[in-house]
Amino acid sequence: MRPTFAMSASCLALMLPGAAAADPVTSPDFPGVVCETIWVPMRDGTLLATDRYSPAAAGTYPVILLRDPYTRGFGGGCFKGIGGGALGPATSLAVFAQNGYVALAQEVRGTNRSQGAFREMVQEAQDGYDAIE
What we know:
Elements: H1 9-14, E1 20-21, E2 33-41, E3 47-55, E4 63-68, H2 91-98, E5 102-107, H3 124-132
Parallel strand pairs: 4-5
Antiparallel strand pairs: 1-2, 2-3, 3-5
């Protein structure tokens, strides 16, 4: 039996209608999975692009969060992998969703679609905390 985890306030906020989100998309390669890009605010108001993969069925699911400074591997949009192709590491997030998890791929500050300036390692502790809380 898989343990269940309580969702933090920010993860719950990601599911609320008030969070800015793009239209959900699906992929024939991953039946039963819905993905949408949401914009998660940090404490200073900077918005970080986050792709949320979730099971299509309503319910409460444990959450996996991946924060990516490279974007070409996990970021760049729903169901996109290295170089924006249909296959790559990002597809593993869809597999998690097929198996009963909500998987989040967040592009760190100043990379790809996220706002702000990228300052290697400097922002990670604060932004990582904000992403979880």
